[in-house]
């Protein structure tokens, strides 16, 4: 018998001073049985960073052909593809070939090892941005995961704060590679 996804619902209020974006989103996320709370919350943070009305969670771990999030234009072309974790070279190169912009958010204590082995292989990808999130912050995010959440996210000067009213986590992004 196959395990089913666990459904999480979040009301996410975003105040992004860097982009002048202020919205509240009602989100439904399916957490794959093999996915951790930490990874799911990193997906939620990635949503907050890039939020707009067309950004959606995909089948992600349920379908290896899809990224974790994407933004498609009205023709179905992928404008933005977002991967979470430490995808391999083939996944990144395929995403860069299919999407206008690709972001990878790594969050493990071993991200530097993963990136060292991958950096030269994806250097030619002009539409790729790779961002490392501190492992201690993402571990705290994982502890905030609840089946129903009310969260506020503030983004200012590149810094991110996510709070559930009780706990606040500050997330500093480290850009390992940016689009050229």
UniProtKB/TrEMBL annotation:
<protein>
    <submittedName>
        <fullName>Uncharacterized conserved protein YaeQ, suppresses RfaH defect</fullName>
    </submittedName>
</protein>
<dbReference type="InterPro" id="IPR011335">
    <property type="entry name" value="Restrct_endonuc-II-like"/>
</dbReference>
<dbReference type="InterPro" id="IPR009822">
    <property type="entry name" value="YaeQ"/>
</dbReference>
<dbReference type="Pfam" id="PF07152">
    <property type="entry name" value="YaeQ"/>
</dbReference>
<dbReference type="InterPro" id="IPR038590">
    <property type="entry name" value="YaeQ_sf"/>
</dbReference>
């Amino acid at each position: 018998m196959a395990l089913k996804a666990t459904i999480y619902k979040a009301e996410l209020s975003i105040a992004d001073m860097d982009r002048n974006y202020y919205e509240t989103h009602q989100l439904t996320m399916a957490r794959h049985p093999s996915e951790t709370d930490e990874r799911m919350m990193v997906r939620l943070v990635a949503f907050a960073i890039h939020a707009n009305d067309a950004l959606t969670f995909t089948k992600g771990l349920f379908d290896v052909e899809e990224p974790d999030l994407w933004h498609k234009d009205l023709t179905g072309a992928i404008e933005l593809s977002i991967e979470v974790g430490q995808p391999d070279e083939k996944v990144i190169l395929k995403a860069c070939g299919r999407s206008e912009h690709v972001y990878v958010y790594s969050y493990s204590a071993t991200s530097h090892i993963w990136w060292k082995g991958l950096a030269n292989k994806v250097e030619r990808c002009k539409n790729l941005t790779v961002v490392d999130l501190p492992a201690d912050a993402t571990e705290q995010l994982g502890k905030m995961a609840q089946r129903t959440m009310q969260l506020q996210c503030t983004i200012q000067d590149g810094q991110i704060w996510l709070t559930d009213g009780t706990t606040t986590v500050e997330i500093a992004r480290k850009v390992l590679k940016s689009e050229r």
